[in-house]
Each structure stands twice: as structure tokens, then as C-alpha cells.
Design brief:
- The complex is a heterodimer.
- Chain A is an alpha/beta fold.
- Chain A folds into 2 domains: about 5-10 and about 30-110 and about 125-250, 3-Layer(aba) Sandwich (Rossmann fold), CATH 3.40.50; about 265-485, Rossmann fold (3-Layer(aba) Sandwich).
- Chain A has 16 helices and 23 strands.
- Chain A has helices at about 5, 30-35, 55-70, 85-90, 95-100, 125-140, 155, 160-175, 270-275, 295-310, 325-330, 340-345, 360-375, 390-410, 425-430, 430-435, and strands at about 25, 40, 45-50, 75-80, 105-110, 120, 145-150, 180-185, 205-215, 215-225, 235-240, 245-250, 265, 280, 285-290, 315-320, 345-350, 375-380, 410-420, 440-445, 450-460, 470-475, 480-485.
- In chain A, α13 runs parallel beside α14 (about 390-410).
- Mean pLDDT of chain A is about 85; it is low at about 1-15 and about 490-504.
- By secondary structure, chain B is of the alpha+beta class.
- Chain B has a single domain (about 15-100), classed as Glutaredoxin.
- Chain B is about 30% helix and about 20% strand.
- In chain B, a hairpin with a 4-residue loop joins β3 and β4.
- The longest helix of chain B is centred in the middle third of the chain and has 17 residues, at about 30-50.
- Classes of the chains: A alpha/beta, B alpha+beta.
- The interface between A and B is medium-sized, with 25 and 33 residues.
- β6 (about 120) of chain A pairs parallel with β4 (about 85-90) of chain B.
């Protein structure tokens, strides 16, 4: 789902499948996958939805990404915002409109009709609009055009008959010009796709954007209502607008055909490596570390992250409960020094409050962060932080996608999971654990008047692993595992469970 | 047809520059509708603003970039540049009454000559 992946199968001009019409890639993450390559080349596409649904952004990204990433100059004709406003709005996405305009890769025109200063008398047509658009297309050799929102002409001019005829002519003219166009329209009443029925005229491809709020969680969705001459996903797809623009998450594109690696990645704790066939986690596998509060889950995950960075690999750390500064400080107290790795740029934190996005928002932002940073390993701490955002099925579905995505990229992932004190841990994690290749459990046990951490490996797919119960010791000098006195058969036995008890 | 009359300014009579009406008629090719608009305009001006007006016809097919400056979308569009403020009238100017209202010409000419017929 990275841009690279998305652009991979599309090859704009070559029909990839049987008799598929030629496609024009948008460069918008996920959208090209759903449409199997992009919008219909040389034809207009209607993008509709309510105010604030992201229509303008989609149109703008189509033009900017086309000009910047696909070598196709584009014209953006705005009926609402001025050129300066548009430039300001998308500057935060890293789109430099003035520069694109200077280099003649893009042209922006703001069409403004002040109804109050206009009188209509007799017949007219919209040739002025055609001339403006045509001259800009010719000036920069545009291959793409966006009209946002052409329907506002209806509120500026009163002769609806002329407008309708002229819009019909406009869309035909765009086709004759051979440009790929995005035309936005505001959603109408009574489930009309657009207020003035533009869908009647633009019928090759219609994309609907939805933005709704349920239980205080805003979710955005995108649906391809219609795509003449092409296969396309018909579902509603979760969509996110963030500082990188619009992205769509195609659900269906995740198969079980990811590559498998034969290599291993150290856990960052030599004693734990020893329990895992002396090697560590399998590269590209997913690891669950679960336990009750205060059992050292984050320490285990951080030790792994530090180990990865020490071997000069990159690690992305998603913190859902603690701030990065807090994690850095706490881990330093148990001998895990993450700060130098952050400074070297090998370790990156992404700290987001769980309730900042809906589940899908998290999923998309996670995907985006992974695709941009291209880490060797990912830590999600704790995955249970997302628990309040959906029911068990939703969360499981989301995890399935995350795990699938990371596996596709051969990224080793560690998930920590907080379990309630009273529950049987093996039971409560059944839903999640089946997704995981390895599962490490840490429990607090009372032993001779002391609480100690007992670590065990419940499973580790595809490798021999120790089934012994060990005691996890956190000290200033790092994490160690020591034998439990009396052996695994008698976990609760006398004093001296561990040889050292430097609690920290 | 375009060649027939590309720029056909109604001869401005240079007098009283303060009272000069500067009018611009935007067309896209000299179509029958454009010709009609020009003739209607000419007639209205002759009748009401004789000697006080100047018409500039701009053919957007020849000068497409000019369409942006005056925010032209429809053609024909008549733009009153002077006197300020700018006003626009779109269409073939066949409704004389509305043109006069659009140009805000009635009151002035009525007060100056007093010969305007009501209609």
C-alpha cells in the first residue's frame, strides 16, 4: 500500500488486464489500488460529498501529484477559493503551488462571479469559461484538469437551462481535449449525489466521499459508486486526511502471500535470545508480549528496539500510553538507552492518544508512518490502548491488517498487551494471539514475600524454544533472565527465586 | 467570420472626459449573437449616451488571457469600466430596459435630457 506498491501495477498507459480502459494514477495512497490503476484516462470523474468531506483535497492532490510525480501538468480551476487560499491550504501538506506554477507544471485560476454586480439579459453561453480553461491547458500542456466546484455557477447565474446545456458541452469538450478531469460536486438533498444532478453528465466514474461522526469518532469513507469499463472495489473504504494528504485503505488487498525470511532478529536481551533457539525473533514475524501492569512489557519492547538500532536498523515505536520523553527516561533507568538512537535518527517515536483517531484513522496513520520511515522493526505499545475504540472484532480486523502489512514489508513487529489482573491470560488473548508468531507472557508472582516477574514463551512459530519459566530481572544494567529456583515444576518455592533482586 | 470585424470601437467623441463611459464588450469570435449584442449596445448608447461613450470589443479567441482579468465566464459580457464601480451585463443585450438598469444609465440620462421614454 505504499505509494511504490500502489504505483507498481498501474503503468498508466498500458492496459494491465483484459480490456481495461487506460488509467490515470492519482498518486493518492490506496485510491489507485481500489480503482485498479487510477481514474479513467482522458475522461471526467465526478467526486462528490458533503462540505468538508475532502473533495477539494482529492482534486488538488490529483493535480499536484500528477504534476510532481507523474510528469503530467495540470490546471486547477477553483470556483470557491482564491489561488492564494488554495496555496496556503495545501502548503502544510508539503505542496508548493507557487513553485509548481512558476515551473509551468500547474496553473490555477479562480473563477469569481459576483452575482450582485451582474445583470443578465438575453442569450449567452459560457464560452468565456471554455476560453480561459483552454488557454491554460494549452499554455502548460496540461493533461489533467480539476474543476472545484463547477456547480457553484448555478448560484451565480440564473439561467439554469443555459447552464445545463453548457456544462454538458463542457464535459464533452474536456473529453475531446483528451484531459483527465476531476469535477467536484456537493452532495444534494434526498440522497442525490450532487445538488444539480451533475452525475447525469459525468458518468464515466463517480467517487463518493463520506464524513460522519459516530460516538464522537469521526470516520471518513470513500466509495467508487461507478466506474464504466473497469473493475473496481465497491465497498466503502476507510479514508484519512492527515498532514500527508488523503489516504484510502483498501481492505481487500491483503492476502496471505507475504514473503518469509529465514533470518532472525535479536530480542535485545541475550538471555531471551537463548530461550529462542539462541537467535531471537524471526525476521518479519509478529511478537506479542502480554502481561499485567508493571511486569516489564515496555522494557522488553524497548530492549528490542534498542537492539535493532544498535545493529543500525531503524525502528518505529508507536506509543499509545506514554509520551516519548517518559519512555526515554524510564527505560534509561533500567539500562536501556534509547536517546542516542533517537538522535541518530534510527529510532522514531509516534506518540498518539488512542482517542485521537478512530480505529481506521490509527490504522491509516500507522501505515503511512511505516511507509515513510521504512523501519526494520515496529513496536506498538500497548496494542490494548486501542481497546476502547471498537469491539473485539473491529480490533482484531485492524490488527490483522497491521500484521499483514508489516509482514508484507518483512518488518519485525512487537506488540505489548496489557491484561487484567484477574483474568486467565491465555484465555483473554486468544483473539489476538493467533495472529502472532510468537507470544511471550510475563506475570507477577508472589514468591517468599516478594513479587517477582516470571517470563515464559507460550509459543514461537517455526522454531524450537525453551518452555522453561524464567525470572525477569530489571536492573540498572539492563534486563536479565535468571533461573527460577526449584525449577518450573515448583514455581512457588522458598526464598531465592532469583539470584539477584535489584529491583528498580 | 472572425475577420469581418475584430475590433470595432464605436468612435469615441473626445469631449468631457469626466463624463466618458468606458464600455468593454467581450465576445468569443464574431458570432451572430456577438453581432447582435454589439448592435444592441451601439443603439442603446447612441440613444442615451451620445458622444459620451467608448466601446472596446475584445475577442477572447484572439486574446484568451484577457478573460481572467475581468473575470469573464459568459459571453457576450459587457463590462462598464467607467464610471466606477465596475458592472457587468451578460447576454446579447436584447432587453434594453435591463441593459439600462444594468449600466445604471437611466437616472443620469433622464435627469440630463428628460426625454427618456418609459417602457
Amino acid at each position: 500500500m505504499s505509494r511504490r506498491n500502489a504505483a507498481g501495477p498501474l503503468m498508466p498507459e498500458t492496459p494491465t488486464r483484459f480490456e481495461q480502459i487506460p488509467k490515470c494514477p492519482t498518486g493518492i495512497r490506496g485510491l489507485d489500488e481500489i480503482t485498479e490503476g487510477g481514474l479513467p484516462r482522458g475522461r471526467p470523474t465526478l467526486v462528490c460529498g458533503k462540505a468538508g468531506c475532502g473533495k477539494t483535497l482529492l482534486a488538488m492532490e490529483f493535480i499536484v501529484r500528477g504534476a510532481r510525480d507523474f510528469g503530467e501538468p495540470g490546471v486547477f480551476m477553483s470556483f470557491e477559493e482564491t489561488g492564494e487560499e488554495l496555496a496556503k491550504n495545501v502548503a502544510s501538506l508539503g505542496f508548493d503551488l507557487p513553485s509548481l506554477i512558476r515551473r509551468r507544471k500547474m496553473a490555477v485560476d479562480h473563477v469569481q462571479i459576483e452575482r450582485s454586480e451582474i445583470e443578465e439579459t438575453g442569450e449567452y453561453d459560457l464560452e468565456g469559461l471554455f476560453v480561459r480553461l483552454g488557454s491554460m491547458i494549452d499554455e502548460i500542456g496540461a493533461k489533467r484538469v480539476a474543476l472545484d466546484t463547477v456547480e457553484s455557477l448555478f448560484s451565480s447565474l440564473s439561467n439554469e437551462g443555459i447552464l445545463r446545456a453548457e456544462l454538458r458541452r463542457l464535459f464533452r469538450w474536456l473529453k475531446d481535449k483528451g484531459v483527465t478531469a476531476v469535477i467536484t460536486g456537493e452532495q444534494g438533498r434526498d440522497n442525490m449525489l450532487t445538488r444539480h444532478g451533475l452525475e447525469e453528465y459525468v458518468s464515466d466514474c463517480v467517487i463518493f466521499l463520506d464524513h460522519r461522526v459516530s460516538e464522537q469518532n469521526a470516520t471518513r469513507r470513500l466509495r467508487v459508486v461507478k466506474y464504466r469499463g473497469s473493475a473496481h472495489g465497491t465497498n466503502e473504504f476507510p479514508t484519512l486526511i492527515d498532514e500527508h494528504g488523503l489516504s484510502v485503505l483498501p481492505i481487500s488487498s491483503l492476502g496471505l502471500n507475504y514473503p518469509v525470511s529465514r533470518r532472525f532478529v535479536g530480542t535485545g536481551i541475550p538471555d531471551l535470545d537463548a530461550m529462542l533457539a539462541g537467535k531471537g525473533y524471526r525476521e518479519g514475524s509478529s511478537v506479542l508480549i502480554s502481561g499485567t501492569a508493571g511486569t516489564g512489557k515496555t522494557s522488553l519492547a524497548a530492549a528490542f528496539a534498542e537492539g535493532v538500532c544498535r545493529r543500525r536498523g531503524r525502528c518505529l515505536y508507536f506509543a499509545f500510553e506514554e509520551s516519548p520523553a517518559q519512555i526515554l527516561r524510564n527505560m534509561a533507568s533500567v539500562g536501556i538507552r534509547l536517546e542516542p538512537q533517537v538522535q541518530k535518527g534510527l529510532l522514531r517515536f509516534e506518540a498518539v492518544r488512542p482517542n485521537y483517531h478512530g480505529l481506521e484513522g490509527h490504522l491509516l496513520s500507522l501505515h503511512g508512518a511505516v511507509d515513510r520511515f521504512r523501519p526494520a522493526a515496529v513496536v506498538i505499545d500497548p496494542v490494548t490502548g486501542l481497546g476502547g475504540l471498537g469491539n473485539e472484532n473491529d480490533i482484531r480486523a485492524m490488527l490483522t491488517r497491521i500484521v499483514g502489512h508489516l509482514k508484507n514489508l518483512n518488518v519485525t513487529s512487537v506488540f505489548t498487551s496489557l491484561t487484567g489482573a484477574g483474568e486467565s491470560i491465555e484465555q483473554s488473548e486468544v483473539g489476538v494471539s493467533s495472529l502472532m508468531d510468537a507470544w511471550i507472557l510475563v506475570r507477577m508472582v508472589e514468591s517468599a514475600g516478594e513479587r517477582v516477574r516470571r517470563l515464559s514463551i507460550l509459543k514461537s512459530r517455526g522454531m524450537a524454544h525453551s518452555s522453561r519459566l524464567r525470572e525477569l530481572v530489571l536492573s540498572r544494567r539492563g534486563l536479565r533472565l535468571v533461573d527460577v529456583a526449584g525449577g518450573p515444576a515448583a514455581p512457588v518455592s522458598g526464598r531465592g527465586a532469583g539470584k539477584s533482586h535489584e529491583r528498580s | 467570420m472572425k475577420e469581418a470585424k475584430k475590433e470595432s470601437p464605436g468612435r469615441p467623441r473626445r469631449q468631457d472626459p469626466a463624463g466618458t463611459w468606458e464600455l468593454r464588450l467581450y465576445i468569443a469570435g464574431f458570432t451572430p449573437r456577438a453581432a447582435r449584442a454589439f448592435e444592441n449596445l451601439k443603439a442603446i448608447c447612441e440613444e442615451n449616451l451620445k458622444g459620451l461613450y467608448r466601446i472596446e470589443v475584445i475577442d477572447l479567441l484572439k486574446n484568451p488571457r484577457l478573460a481572467r482579468g475581468d473575470q469573464i465566464v459568459a459571453v457576450p459580457t459587457l463590462v462598464r469600466k467607467l464610471p466606477a464601480p465596475v458592472r457587468k451585463i451578460i447576454g446579447d443585450l436584447s432587453d434594453r430596459e435591463r441593459v439600462l438598469v444594468g449600466l445604471d444609465v437611466r437616472l443620469r440620462s433622464a435627469s440630463s435630457s428628460g426625454t427618456r421614454r418609459p417602457k
